[in-house]
Structures are given as structure tokens and as C-alpha cells.
Design brief:
The chain is an alpha+beta fold. Helices cover 49% and strands 17% of the residues.
């Protein structure tokens, strides 16, 4: 690994540590990067959240709300559907904010 790559890796770890102090977890960063790399707005159903919409819906909501509380995404409720199978589907549009774009741009650079 070159010296510049080592410096870049140290800088990246320092940035992640700095933003981790804001209360974001690694799963939050993965979700934020997932939102940032998709055409806006993003539907929750389009995000790759393993088990989030089936086994652990609270986890997905908690992650999204943590990102929203930090000002990294904006969540707009679009509609609620309750098909005949009894499952409620909440359709949300998620937009990445300028701060979210800045942070993900720094990490991806």
C-alpha cells in the first residue's frame, strides 16, 4: 500500500470516528450511502435493508429516523396501503440533504 493510500485510509478512519461521535452507527452509514447512490427520491422498498421490512421493521424505521434527526435525509410519507393479506405497507420517499451529500461525498472521494 502506498503512502498516499495509507494517509487516505487514516483520514477516512478519522472522519468515520468523528461522525460516529454524532451517534451514527455503521448500519446508518451503509443506509445513508445506499440512499445517496440512488436516483432521488428513494422508496423505502427499493433500499436493500436485509430483514428490515419483514422481521425487524422497527430497526429500519429507527435507522431512517436517526439519519433524519441528524439532518442527513428528509423523509416524506407518501401513502399507506393495506392489501387484502393484512400487511400494512408504508410508502416513504427519502431525499438526501445537502449535509448528507457532503458527508457521503467526503467518504466516497
Amino acid at each position: 500500500m502506498s503512502t498516499s493510500q495509507q494517509k487516505r485510509n487514516r483520514w477516512l478512519l478519522a472522519e468515520i470516528s468523528r461522525y460516529a461521535a454524532t451517534g451514527l452507527r455503521l448500519a446508518d452509514w451503509v443506509l445513508l450511502l445506499n440512499v445517496a447512490t440512488r436516483p432521488q427520491p428513494v422508496l423505502v422498498e427499493d433500499l436493500l435493508l436485509p430483514g428490515a421490512m419483514t422481521r425487524h421493521p422497527e430497526t429500519a424505521r429507527q435507522r431512517l429516523h436517526r439519519l433524519q434527526e441528524k439532518g442527513l435525509v428528509q423523509i416524506d410519507r407518501v401513502s399507506v396501503n393495506q392489501p387484502n393479506n393484512g400487511y400494512v405497507t408504508l410508502n416513504l420517499h427519502i431525499h438526501i440533504t445537502e449535509l448528507g451529500q457532503k458527508l457521503t461525498g467526503e467518504l466516497a472521494a
